[in-house]
């Protein structure tokens, strides 16, 4: 009995000593902890209040065993892709809902077009204008600046418009007159003949490329302005949106030239029209649509703009018609109308979609390469493109339902983000300009093959990696040459150090950065980690952020406060902030007419940053690592609990909560374990 009492006394003394030692260590700020924490900051009682915290729970219900989300920043990557807020404080004020297009209104002078082209290429008169007298003039391309016209051709309801894809039309009925422009897609016999003469692997059907581009839409703006389209792409089409897609130059040509040639304008022979020795672009550019044409594809290149054409505004344009179907011819006539967004009573974008669909239907028996670029609704306005969201969604839905996407790689993208001056002057606006929308889907017919499964897996894995227009060229070449590629090649990681153009259907290395991707510093959106404890202001903010993290954890613990002790911040072990390269913030505009010489005299200040903090809390000895988004303008941080990692073992410290709420085991210190 005496020995038992003596043993109990020993245990009590040991316990008291352990508790006293524990609090002594706390009072010393862990100065006697292992060497990895020697340089850590001590937290004093005078520290400022925590930053206001917005708590997110994107992965809360998956359990505490999964503490990192694939959506979070991966610190082992050479390029950290910015995670932008669609409602970012700096930019959200620029966006509003536009009024619908007024091409057709009830009780107005605007009525239905008198004549239109149906899907069979026949001209149809509206019921009210059946007795009108109408004539058309067919028109063809003479060169990139001029058209040639036929003589007048009398037409009637049901007339087959097969003389050209394009015509002007004039009608008269009594004292009333009406004129407009007609656009159709007629099958070219030589294109079909060319396709028949190309030998193909009968076991692998050639894939179509369906490419719809838009001007001046960052990924964030595409999601803001075309939400129904994005939903259909992601949920129905299973499109992959490339979150790390980064521009390589200023303006539309610098977006499309690398896609179409794998080179930049300065690497290619001179084509700038103001120079007397300039070349036509088709004489010297190795356009990829020529590769597709040589492989038996029907091709179409369509822009909804004449005055600001990608290859004609600043460049010399094409000597010869570049593709089988080429729309510059018709848009020269369409832009003579006072309202460029409408063709009489029809919104121009609907006509645009209709002829994209018609091209795919007309050549349904041979492979097709279609590249269309739309600029009129988005080039000069950050909001107007929203008017076509429902029409674009309906167009994609119809194409899918009609089976026109069954063997098609479908790409919807933008050339760059908006360059509207005030928006571009903001920190987020700078990053958005460099991060346009890019989505791509593969047909089920491909994904069901062994080769396609590997391509699909790689595409999804590359979603968060740094990619550029150069990579799209390599990807299109993979599509074109798919039957010649051994499926094992899709298992091999590409050489990022020695190859600038990497296919998004093959493995892209984690460590890829802007330098080896061919992206100059002032265009590079990769964020750099910087020590956030080096100066007094950074230290104070880090302390406030750390306290905000602990406060958020305690809010999670509050329902179980009878079981779990509230935590306090004991120590900041490290704090890093992710910011863009100084070259991005300094970029103001370009100094030359061609967009090659950067003006780095800008003084844009960072308005937000990602922070990663490693902290120790008490009671217990938990070490947490958390990635947060800090809005400097609102003095507000956003914390997703999926981005908090408990990086040391918690043992049986949370034993009282594990069976009750396993999610809280990451944060709970049971009272009997203090």
Automatic annotation (TrEMBL):
GO cellular component: extracellular space
CDD domains: ALP_like
Transmembrane segments: 12-30
InterPro entries with a match to the protein in the record: Alkaline_phosphatase_core_sf (IPR017850), DUF229 (IPR004245)
Keywords: Membrane, Transmembrane, Transmembrane helix
PANTHER family: FI08016P-RELATED
Name this polypeptide is given: Uncharacterized protein
UniProt lineage: Eukaryota, Metazoa, Ecdysozoa, Nematoda, Chromadorea
């Amino acid at each position: 009995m005496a020995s038992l009492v003596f043993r109990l006394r020993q245990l009590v003394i040991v316990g008291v000593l352990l508790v006293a030692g524990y609090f002594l260590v706390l009072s010393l700020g862990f100065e006697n902890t292992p060497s990895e924490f020697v340089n850590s900051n001590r937290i004093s009682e005078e520290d400022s209040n925590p930053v206001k915290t917005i708590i997110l729970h994107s992965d809360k219900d998956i359990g505490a065993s999964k503490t990192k989300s694939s959506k979070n920043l991966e610190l082992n990557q050479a390029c950290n892709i910015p995670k932008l807020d669609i409602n970012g404080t700096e930019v959200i004020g620029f966006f509003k809902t536009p009024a619908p297009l007024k091409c057709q209104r009830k009780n107005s002078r605007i009525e239905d077009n008198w004549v239109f082209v149906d899907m069979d290429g026949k001209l149809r008169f509206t019921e009210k204008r059946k007795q009108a007298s109408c004539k058309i003039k067919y028109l063809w391309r003479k060169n990139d600046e001029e058209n040639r016209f036929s003589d007048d051709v009398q037409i009637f309801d049901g007339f087959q418009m097969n003389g050209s894809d394009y015509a002007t039309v004039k009608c008269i009925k009594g004292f009333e007159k009406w004129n407009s422009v007609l656009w159709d897609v007629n099958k070219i016999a030589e294109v079909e003949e060319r396709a028949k003469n190309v030998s193909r692997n009968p076991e692998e059907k050639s894939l179509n490329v369906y490419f719809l581009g838009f001007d001046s839409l960052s990924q964030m703006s595409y999601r803001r302005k075309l939400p129904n389209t994005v939903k259909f792409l992601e949920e129905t089409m299973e499109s992959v949106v490339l979150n790390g897609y980064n521009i390589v130059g200023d303006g539309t040509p610098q977006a499309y030239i690398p896609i179409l040639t794998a080179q930049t304008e300065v690497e290619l022979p001179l084509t700038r029209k103001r120079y007397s020795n300039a070349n036509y672009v088709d004489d010297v550019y190795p356009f990829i649509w020529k590769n597709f044409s040589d492989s038996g594809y029907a091709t179409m290149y369509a822009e909804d703009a004449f005055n600001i054409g990608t290859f004609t505004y600043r460049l010399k344009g094409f000597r010869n018609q570049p593709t089988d179907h080429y729309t510059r011819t018709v848009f020269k006539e369409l832009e003579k109308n006072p309202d460029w967004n409408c063709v009489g009573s029809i919104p121009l974008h609907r006509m645009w979609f209709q002829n994209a669909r018609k091209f795919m239907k007309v050549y349904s028996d041979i492979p097709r390469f279609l590249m269309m670029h739309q600029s009129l609704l988005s080039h000069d306005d950050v909001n107007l493109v929203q008017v076509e969201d429902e029409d674009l969604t309906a167009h994609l839905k119809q194409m899918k339902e009609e089976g026109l996407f069954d063997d098609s790689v479908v790409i919807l993208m933008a050339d760059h983000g908006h360059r509207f001056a005030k928006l571009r002057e903001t920190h987020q606006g700078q990053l958005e300009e460099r991060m346009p929308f890019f989505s791509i889907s593969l047909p089920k017919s491909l994904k069901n093959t062994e080769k396609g499964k590997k391509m699909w897996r790689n595409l999804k894995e590359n979603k968060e990696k740094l990619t550029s227009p150069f990579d799209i060229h390599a990807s299109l070449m993979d599509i074109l040459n798919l039957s010649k590629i051994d499926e094992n090649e899709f298992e091999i990681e590409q050489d990022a150090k020695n190859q600038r153009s990497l296919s998004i259907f093959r493995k892209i290395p984690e460590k890829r950065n802007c330098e080896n991707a061919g992206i100059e510093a002032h265009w590079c959106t990769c964020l750099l980690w910087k020590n956030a404890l080096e100066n007094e202001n950074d230290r104070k903010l880090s302390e406030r952020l750390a306290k905000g993290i602990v406060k958020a954890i305690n809010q999670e613990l509050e329902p179980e406060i009878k079981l779990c002790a509230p935590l306090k911040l004991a120590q900041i072990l490290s704090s890093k902030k992710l910011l863009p390269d100084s070259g991005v913030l300094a970029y103001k505009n370009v100094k030359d007419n061609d967009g090659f010489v950067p003006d780095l005299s800008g003084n844009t200040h960072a308005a937000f940053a990602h922070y990663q903090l490693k902290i120790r809390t008490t009671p217990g000895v938990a070490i947490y690592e958390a990635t947060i988004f800090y809005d400097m303008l609102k003095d507000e941080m956003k914390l997703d609990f999926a981005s908090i990692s408990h990086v040391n073992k918690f043992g049986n410290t949370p034993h009282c909560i594990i069976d009750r709420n396993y999610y809280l085991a990451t944060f709970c210190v049971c009272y009997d374990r203090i």
